[in-house]
Amino acid sequence: MDYPENLIVTWGKETVGFLHQKPKQGSFTFQYDDNWLDNNFPPISFSLPLRNEPYNWEDCINFFQNLIPEGDSLNNIATYKRLSTNNIYDFLRRYGKECAGALIIHDSNEEIDYTNHTYIDVTDQILDAISNPKKKDINLLVLTNARLSLAGAQNKLPVLFKKDKFYIPAKDSIAATTHIIKPASTRFKKLHINETFCMKLAEELGLPVAKSDILTIDKVDIYITERYDRKIMYDGTIQKLHQEDFCQALGYPNSRKYESSGGPGIKQCLDFIINNDISDQTTAKLNFSKLLIFNFIIGNCDAHAKNISILYDFDDKNIINHSLAPFYDLVSTKIYKNLSRELAMFIGKTKEHGLLSKESINILIEDLQFEKKDFGEMAFSFIQNIQNSVRKIMKIYSSHDEICKFQKVLYRIINTNCKLFLNPLHKLLHSPKNRPRP
Ligand SMILES: Nc1ncnc2c1ncn2[C@@H]1O[C@H](COP(=O)(O)OP(=O)(O)OP(=O)(O)O)[C@@H](O)[C@H]1O
Ligand SMILES: [Mg+2]
């Protein structure tokens, strides 16, 4: 064998497989472990079905690359920790002790003690990081030395949050985190308020979303969200549920997460939900459709395929159950003038809010496999609910001046976008072709 070393991928205490690094090339292959295959345990991704043969770099990289940060976050960590942004293997070796979902990835030379569930208190480090101007631009993973990994470009840290204190797993521990925190962004003004507002609005509308809030510590606000891929058991232990995002499930690299760069669009995501073993498909399809309308209305142009996930859970008979994960990362990006206005997933042929036509809504209805009339009824009542619920959410923070000011801007964007969706929808449903014959 010319493989000098490998990384071990585990799920629970079981070895799932191995990442073999290819000498000098920086690439690797992935191979399921014989025992995992013999037991017919679940594949770790829809894009990596169980098989004996190893997956080559081109076929496995999309799943593993999408476990690690990207953009500003990746660059920041790489700079401070002297890592190459291209060396995904090295990143996983250092940060794979806790990932999104259930997997642990570690060096084959490292013994894992599955009985060690200890944490260290990093509250002071986090408080210092968010209030000290010299540290605000440094990623929390760097400042805390945590060996955890989450995708996305924003600065964030998975933590155990208990009695107003933040903890991360200790050095040799496999303890699980329960929350994710995102400090206020230095690049996008009031992003934490924006995200909290949009997440709370979605929750108010009955969409399945991760519970999120603003946490104020020492007069500094941060965004906090409960991990939906962690389950607190009756004895207090934390079970890790596996998850993968739509880029991982469909086999796309993060460089192709946008439809404009060749990434998945609405039809492809819906077809995936319909054609795979996703539980409660009718509800999943309806929630996915509402999510698309919601993102259009709040002005979220960044609702790409990495911002929706599949959650893996086991039923009473220990059989794997795939469902659409609660929604996360709901943000109005239109509020930021320097961000792209192009929709991450096109609506029909439409790429921008102001250009939405009745023809494009017609394509959307077909893509979502709805009857025109049913879609119309659902969309009209959902958008009306959004308009009513916005006022309710605004009241939650009515005593917080800064949040109020920001919410008013969001309110205007939402009202404009409601009209931009409702006008062409109205035209489509009331065009002569659709009027009932006398
Ligand atoms: N509440 C949650 N529970 C479990 N996993 C989550 C939760 N929120 C986010 N994640 C995971 O963390 C990843 C990154 O989160 P998120 O999309 O919020 O980050 P981001 O940096 O804001 O992303 P982007 O680069 O799209 O702006 C998600 O793809 C998902 O796998
Ligand atoms: Mg995201």
Characteristics of this structure?
438 residues, alpha+beta, Phosphatidylinositol 3-kinase Catalytic Subunit, Chain A, Domain 5, six-stranded antiparallel sheet, four-stranded antiparallel sheet, 13 helices, 15 strands, 18% strand, globular, binds adenosine-5'-triphosphate, binds magnesium ion
Structure overview:
36% of the residues lie in helices and 18% in strands. With 438 residues, the protein is of the alpha+beta class. The longest helix is centred in the C-terminal third of the chain and has 29 residues, at 401-429. The radius of gyration is 22 Å and the shape is globular. 42% of the residues are buried. Bound molecules: adenosine-5'-triphosphate and magnesium ion (MG). Adenosine-5'-triphosphate binds next to strand 10.
Could you tell me the number of beta strands?
15
Q: Which structural class is indicated by helix and strand composition? A: alpha+beta
Ligands bound, unique: adenosine-5'-triphosphate, magnesium ion
Helix and strand string, N-terminal first? EEEHHHHEEHHEEEHEEEEEHHHEEHHH
Mean pLDDT rating: 93
Distance between the termini: 78 Å
**Could you say which overall geometry the principal axes of the C-alpha atoms support?**
globular
The biggest beta sheet reads: 6 strands, antiparallel
- Rg (C-alpha, Å): 22 Å
CATH topology of the largest domain: Phosphatidylinositol 3-kinase Catalytic Subunit, Chain A, Domain 5
Q: How large is the share of residues in beta strands?
A: 15-25%
- CATH class type of the largest domain: Mainly Alpha
Uncertain stretches of 5 or more adjacent residues: none
Identify the strand order in the major beta sheet.
5-7-6-8-10-9
Percent of residues in helical segments?
Answer: 25-40%
Helical segment tally? 13
